[in-house]
Design brief:
single chain, about 170 residues, mainly alpha, two-stranded antiparallel ribbon
Length: about 170
Amino acid sequence: MWLPTDQDPRMSGGPTRGERECLVDYLEHYRTTLRLKCDGLGPEQLGTRSVPPSNISLLGLVRHMARVEHHWFRRVIVGDLDLPRLFQGDDEDAGFNWSGEPDEALVADAWGLWEAEVAHAREVLDRTDLDTLVEVHGSPTEVRDLVVHMIEEYARHCGHADLVREVLDGRTGQ
């Protein structure tokens, strides 16, 4: 196991009550999982693209998930579509690419951006009803569908993170 159950921050809550609490708990679970998968690694390890030919790295996943949080919560749910997408250029590949070698500053910037976007997303979700309709690709979509999409996005990328971490140091699980 990655952590003993009594030390796992994802296991501290009790059973959820209702749809909103259930969805938010799953989203928070996967956000915490991404952080745990990156725990204890330095910039070089975080930036290692360890599943060739893919360019996926743990640092790239953090940057990419900041982009995803930014898009769905700021641009779509809040409706600020004038905001440019993060890491939009071809050379940035949705956050998976950056210039130069990964260093402490790049890692700190990535975590800072991710944390800011997660904090903003939490605020937006706290004040938004799950039944609220927003436009996605020209169709009205309930916010609950976007929360489920975020859970799916994190779950998929946490699976990637598990594989990358295993290649780096053999750690697997949870």
